[in-house]
Amino acid sequence: MNSALKVLLVATVFTISGCHKGDTLPDAAATETVSSDTGASTSGSANNTGITVSPLEEERRRMLQNLVVYFDYDQAEIRPEFNALLQAHGQNLAMNPNAQIRLEGHTDERGSREYNIGLGERRAQAVRRVLMLQGATANQLSTVSYGEERPAATGSDEEAWRLNRRVELAYR
Amino acid sequence: MLGVLKAAARYSRPRAASMARSAAVALLALTFVGSAGAQLNITVVKGVTRPVPMAIVPFGWTGTGPAAYDLAGVVTSDLGGSGRFAPIPVSDMVSKPTTPAQVNYTDWRLLKVDYVVVGTLTEDTPDRFTAVFQLMDVNRGEQILGFRLNAGRGDLRATGHRIADMIFEKLVGVPGVFGTQIAYVSEEKRPDGSKRFRLIVSDADGENAKIVADSPQPLMSPSWSPDARRLAYVSFEGDASQVFVQTLRTGTRERVSARAGVNGSPAFSPDGRLLALTLSQNQGNLDIFTLDLTTQVLRQLTTDAAIDTEAAWSPDGRQIYFLSDRSGGPQIYRVGAEPGARAERVTYEGVYNARPRISPDGKQIAVVYGQNNTYRIGVVTASSGVLDVLTTGRLDESPSYAPNGAQLIYATRDGGRGVLASVTTDGSGIQQEIASVGGDVREPVWGPYPRP
């Protein structure tokens, strides 16, 4: 909750200081429906009543509320559906040099615990690299891996595992 | 402190019919209550096909008041709980001899027991006691073991374990481990949704549980010093991984590594001088290091871009076994403990081998073996590379050898709960489940033999 609030604050600062650059967002990002696992989704797809118009800034603000990137089993590659999310956060950091994010890497419960610490760290580093490609600087980003020690969902099934293989972006 | 064995084991004498079956299942159920409020139930899930029937007769007592300690109760719990012996209930005993001269072999042959343990406990002074015990072979009609032990009041429970260890060694051929300790991590969810992580040390039977560290943040990867006096572990207090070394007797601890990135997987060298560690430093690449605990000199042993972690020392201290996914998936490698050595791959069977632990004789490597979405404890024979899977769970992890090498303790799941379990490594197939009554338990590590 707290970090979501901070995102909003950062996003608001961005709106005031840099909204004229909003049009640099690729159109694809503005119209893509993000089916993230947080239950949030963006609007903007055309429907059969005609054309809908979504302000880019609203899209971006919504995007910035998504703070979790999910991964495949035993993988640390960023899945394509999270590119827009990370692009938004990376550009947000670039526009707000005082903003900082802690990247918390997690895994599902399978396998050995210290290997999972390594896998969580690898995932956090993968997110870190993408954010830096978008203009974030090293001193805005820190990483920590909790491995399987702090699951978001309890249970030993595919659904719990899917929700636990993640990197959480925590604005500080 | 005088511990009281609350236990009272309920033993049912195996009937001939069940003994004839291929496996004797769930013969024994023991309950132990620890002093820290943590409680472990030890259940023999599968014993040997024919556990050896024996009688452990209540010890004679000479002293003021009631007996200072039920030594026979401790010996009964230990030997019965091992899954190898079937002690008969005291109520079945026709006579209760306390010295070899009082043992009537004919009586015991009728009861079909192979061995009888008799003994006495004598109060020499209010704080000094003498225990004497003899192990009698019923079929041969003679004594095969006998010792006198002297102990203070606080050591009476340990005295019972010591007697059980000696009887076990005489009858099984390997030293017993009833007098050793285990460390493990427990996680408790509170009504308000918060969590408590605890590092607990208990006797090998779950008794005398003591909380040695307690944190709202995860605790993990406990590792014993070779003298059994210190534990190294990872704590996430302050929202970052750090490695501590804690002296058990005093509770004082030293933060030995809080470098940027991952600080994990501590493992004491066999001489206790070095701590192997996993560090990621700034670039997020996990490698194995050794830290000299006296000089603080840090030396890097691996440099691969892969995940290198979970160091385990060979018993001679010359090699470090570790997990690496440099071949694409987790496999076990080993490297010399001096920097500059080349790492070589050890496991080839299967796609997921993790968390190596080396047997005390150096001949076996226990691993977490993953296949088709199940994770079980396997043992690799070092000379041949052949892997045997010993357990049958779906999410088994964290194997740790008993100091006699005859048993592995590990973590598994039972109905969604984290529990501990053990399995023998000699092919006898004895399995125990060790469940905590409160919260999940995991990451058991078996302590070394205590040094006098």
Instruction: Give the spatial strand order of the biggest sheet of chain B.
Output: 1-2-3-32-31-30-29
The tally of structural domains of chain A comes to 1
The CATH homologous superfamily of chain A corresponds to OmpA-like domain
Straight-line distance between termini of chain A: 12 Å
State the separation between the terminal residues of chain B, measured CA to CA.
20 Å
Portion in helices of chain A: 40-55%
Number of helices of chain B: 4
Describe this protein's structure.
The complex is a heterodimer of chains A (172) and B (452). Chain A has helices spanning 2-18, 27-31, 56-64, 83-95, 113-133, 158-164; strands spanning 68-70, 101-106, 141-147, 166-171. Chain A has 6 helices and 4 strands, in the order H-H-H-E-H-E-H-E-H-E. Chain A is globular. Chain A has a single domain, classed as OmpA-like domain (60s Ribosomal Protein L30, Chain: A, 2-Layer Sandwich), CATH 3.30.1330.60. Chain A is 42% helix and 13% strand. The two termini of chain A are 12 Å apart. With 172 residues, chain A is α+β, with helices and mostly antiparallel strands. In chain A, helix 1 (2-18) runs antiparallel to helix 3. A 4-stranded mixed beta sheet of chain A has the order 1-4-2-3. With 452 residues, chain B is mainly beta. In chain B, a hairpin with a 5-residue loop joins strand 15 and strand 16 (253-257). The longest helix of chain B is centred in the middle third of the chain and has 17 residues, at 156-172. In chain B, helix 2 (71-81) packs across helix 4. Chain B has 2 domains: 10-172, Rossmann fold, CATH 3.40.50; 181-446, 6 Propeller (Neuraminidase). Chain B has a 7-stranded antiparallel beta sheet, with helices on one face. In chain B, strands 4, 5, 6, 7, 8 and 9 form a 6-stranded mixed beta sheet that branches. Chain B has helices spanning 16-20, 71-81, 105-110, 156-172; strands at residues 10-11, 28-33, 39-46, 52-56, 60-62, 85-87, 115-125, 128-137, 142-152, 181-189, 195-203, 210-215, 219-224, 230-235, 242-247, 253-257, 263-268, 274-279, 287-292, 298-300, 308-313, 319-324, 331-336, 344-345, 352-358, 364-371, 374-381, 387-389, 397-401, 407-414, 417-424, 431-436, 440-446. Chains A and B meet through helix 5 and strand 3 of A and strand 25 of B.
